[in-house]
Amino acid sequence: MKTNGVASARSGAQSADCEYVIVGAGSAGCVAAWRLLTETDARVVLLEAGSDYTSPYLKLSPGYSRLVPKGIHCTLHQTVPQVHAGNRVLEIATGRVVGGGSSVNAQVYMRGYRADYDQWGQSAGSDHWNWSALLPHFRRLEGNQKFAGEFHGSAGPLIVADPGFFCEYSRLFVKAAQALGLPFTADFNVGAPVGTGFLQFTASDGRRCSAAEAFLGRVRSNSRLRVVTRAQVNRIVFENQRAVGVEYVQGGQKHLVRCGGEVLLAAGALASPHVLMLSGIGPAGLLRRFDIPVLVDLPGVGRNLHDHAGSPLVLAGNSRGYGYFRQDRGWRLVWNLLEYALFRRGRLTTVGGEATSFHATSESSVPSVQIYCVPMIAYANTGADAVPAVDGIKLHVTLLRPHSRGSLSRWSIPIIWVTAGICTT
């Protein structure tokens, strides 16, 4: 990012509202705005479909999952019936608030495998996407409260720390995994996560560190930044094959923001291709079915969707007090709130799942499955599939390298319908 590049763009677009429009105020959008405002003299407009990052519940480590009703700060996308999942319709939640997924997720700080990053670089034909090239950026962004040195930064804006509380179920899980032969791993973020151990989180002292706070919060008062929330983007506006602005709806009114530099699309894996297709960039046949004028016939848009499919194994415990069962009600809640308010310690300083393990199949030494130990059962299912509210743990088994691929092929704002078998093998 160079100031002189922004100046040249501005000189040719005096009527523009800004130099950069960023679509999506999630993790990527917040980082992009922070970098542009601190390293250039550009004017930036940041558009977010959801609300602002103001709810106090979002800022507590366990707050979103336990205290905020489902769907308030998320878009709940639905798949078509999945053949390999008993024809069930699955739900994919994405953040719909400033900070995006970082404002509503479980806050686990987990990098991928060195070999995966290197493969990205090879596939892209670029030296900028391998592990060695990305590691300095990881260190720059990270403010780790425990690790420093070759693999970790300790002075960056994104706070990373151990949870403030470890429950007994988490400790027992790690011991059991070691008894089965898995090595104990003190740090999962050195490019080769294996074994079993305790997680680190983007939170400290019971407070979430979202991208909204870590990055956007540092430039939020800058006069060159305009953040527009509850702005549903309709399309990117093109003139002579050049993106010159973004059309969006807010409060029932249509708006257009023009830029003299670039439109940065940072709306996530589902919404970004959605916006591209609404703008006329995508598979020509599909766009014509929806009467969208084709600007660029790009068949890959909306294709090759894959995600980490997971399934919980729910187990009842034979002892009370080892996990977080009913710690959010009655006198237990009162005590937990007092302990947190007075001393910044106790159960409200953790997200509720502190341990994990990695498992390889017999065909490969590289783990293909990760298990998260969640020391609570918090389902509200009804009917034949109901899970009773009992003291116990949920082992969330997650597939790390899925072979199945899906696509986005039909939609209605803001719902995206995911087609093809994302749960197939």
Summarize the biggest pleated sheet: 6 strands, mixed
Question: How widely separated are the two ends?
Answer: 42 Å
| Rg over C-alpha atoms, rounded to the nearest angstrom | 23 Å
Strand content: 25-35%
SSE inventory with pairings:
Elements: H1 3-11, E1 18-23, H2 27-39, E2 44-47, H3 63-67, E3 74-79, E4 91-95, H4 114-124, H5 131-141, E5 142-144, E6 158-160, H6 168-179, E7 196-198, E8 203-204, E9 207-208, H7 211-214, E10 225-228, E11 232-239, E12 242-250, E13 253-265, H8 268-278, E14 281-282, H9 284-289, E15 296-297, E16 310-316, H10 330-343, E17 355-359, E18 369-374, E19 392-399, E20 407-412, E21 415-419
Parallel strand pairs: 1-2, 1-13, 2-10, 3-21, 5-6, 14-15
Antiparallel strand pairs: 3-4, 7-17, 8-9, 11-12, 12-13, 16-19, 17-18, 18-19, 20-21
List keywords for this structure.
alpha/beta; 10 helices; 21 strands; 23% helix; globular; disordered N terminus
3D architecture notes:
Helix content is 23%, strand content 26%. It is built from ten helices and 21 strands. The longest helix has 14 residues, at 330-343. Residues 1-14, 412-417 and 419-425 have low confidence and may be disordered. The chain has 425 residues and is of the alpha/beta class. A six-stranded mixed beta sheet has the order 10-2-1-13-12-11. The chain has a five-stranded antiparallel beta sheet with strand order 7-17-18-19-16, with helices on one face.
